[in-house]
Design brief:
- It is a single chain.
- The chain is mainly alpha-helical and 416 residues long.
- The chain contains 23 helices and two strands.
- The chain has a two-stranded antiparallel ribbon.
- Strand 1 and strand 2 form a beta hairpin.
- Helix 16 (287-299) runs antiparallel to helix 17 and helix 18 (319-332) runs antiparallel to helix 19.
- The radius of gyration is 25 Å and the shape is elongated.
- It holds the Pfam family TPR_11.
């Protein structure tokens, strides 16, 4: 007998997990008993039950897979992965285990490994004992592709899911996420509303809808949706992060810190919570605390932590450290304009002028009229004593933005 557990997280990550089938009647009965505990939210009891079952059936991978899901619900990701790894060792052709491990990686932002596992589950699709297992895999893979900035590919995968099930609220939610990512907020809201119509107590759809209202700067509505989601399901780490971000926008920083602290206590290795807390400390000029939180974010898999540390190091004058962190970030996001400008400024501070100019050239190749990149380039020329080049660039800035005060002041200083 196969049981399914659906989870959709808000940054919102959609996840569908599959309780793994058992073979013999005794094993199936044990699985049923564990599932009942799991379904009632008695995760500790489910873990104990599967642990006892493994005493008699130590080679049965399904029990490890199912216990891993119970650990994941408790926020014990390391234990969840340990069990799912063991399930795959014991039964390497069981697609449910790959789907579930990929789901855990997806929910914790380890996207490369999530991709490997989900594609492996598709490779083993003929072995799914649950007729919906492949559907759930497509659903999660579509969400993963969207999270990794591949919305077109995500839509192709979700079309395959739609062919198998066109009335699932999770699919509407996934499509809402994609349209949110490409900036079509009205269509995103339509799909999230559709998901809620299909399932009125669907916490993740409320959270996702709240994330759209957050982007639309409708913070009161966003907070209402997030609070509704948390009242339905308090075990969603992304929801804590989103609520904190809303509170930051409304100026409630202490409450935002409290929410993040609560989330980190429950999910100690959820990177985004550290990044958001680091951003608050940065805004409050608590740079040591900011660096520590960005560092923890990096430790738990966040690329954003490198950017946070880079900008912080630059601000406190540790330019070599800033360069190292910003370059690492750009290896993953080579067209991020704000990071390219920050790196150009750091190179200027270390008198590596040609490298500084190279960063601004990259920005201008992406955005030819980017006045901030032009202005920073002019400052580099001034430091190089290439004043005619600086004057030329500053005049270009003013031709685009005649009211650019910093450029006017720089030109005045050159003329003096």
């Amino acid at each position: 007998m196969i049981f399914r557990k659906y989870i959709i997280m808000v940054a919102l990550i959609l996840m569908s997990t599959v309780f793994t089938a058992c073979g013999s009647r005794v094993e199936e009965q044990l699985n049923d008993e564990g599932y009942d505990l799991y379904l009632e939210g008695q995760y500790d009891e489910a873990i104990t039950h599967y642990t006892k079952s493994l005493v008699d059936y130590p080679e049965y991978g399904a029990f490890y897979s199912n216990r891993g899901l119970a650990y994941y619900e408790k926020g014990e990701v390391a234990m969840a992965l340990e069990d799912l790894n063991q399930a795959i060792v014991l039964e390497p052709d069981m697609p449910e285990a790959y789907l579930n491990r990929g789901t855990v990686y997806l929910g914790t932002g380890v996207y490369d490994q999530a991709s490997i596992d989900l594609y492996k589950a598709i490779e083993l699709k003929d072995n799914f004992k649950d007729e919906n297992g492949l559907y759930y895999t497509y659903l999660n893979l579509g969400t993963l592709l969207n999270e990794t900035n591949q919305p077109k590919e995500a839509l192709v995968v979700l079309e395959k899911a739609f062919e198998q099930n066109s009335s699932d609220e999770k699919l509407y939610n996934a499509l809402g996420l994609i349209y949110k990512s490409i900036g079509d907020y009205d269509l995103a809201l339509t799909y999230f509303n559709g998901a809620i119509e299909l399932k009125e107590d669907y916490a993740y759809a409320y959270g996702n809808r709240g994330s759209v209202y957050y982007l639309m700067e409708e913070y009161r509505i966003a907070l209402s949706d997030v609070n509704t989601a948390l009242s339905m399901d308090p075990f969603i780490p992304q929801m804590y992060d989103l609520k904190a971000k809303i509170l930051i926008k409304t100026g409630e920083l202490e409450e935002a810190i409290r929410i993040l602290d609560a989330g980190i206590t429950r999910w100690v290795n959820y990177a985004d919570l550290y990044i958001t807390r680091g951003n608050i400390y940065f805004s409050e000029k608590a740079y040591g605390e900011a660096l520590m939180n960005y560092g923890l974010g990096i430790e738990y898999g966040s690329i954003e932590g490198h950017k946070g540390q880079g900008v912080t190091y630059q601000l406190i004058g540790q330019y070599e450290d800033a360069i190292s962190q910003l370059e690492t970030y750009l290896q993953n996001y080579p067209t991020d304009i704000s990071t390219l400008i920050a790196l150009g400024t750091a190179y200027r501070q270390t008198k590596e002028y040609e490298l500084s100019l190279a960063q601004y050239d990259k920005v201008l190749s992406l955005s030819p009229k980017h006045t901030e990149a032009m202005y920073q380039m002019a400052l580099t020329y001034i430091d190089m004593q290439a004043l005619s080049d600086a004057e030329k660039v500053l005049n270009q800035v003013l031709s685009i933005d005649p009211d650019h005060k910093a450029s006017k002041e720089a030109l005045k200083n050159i003329e003096v």
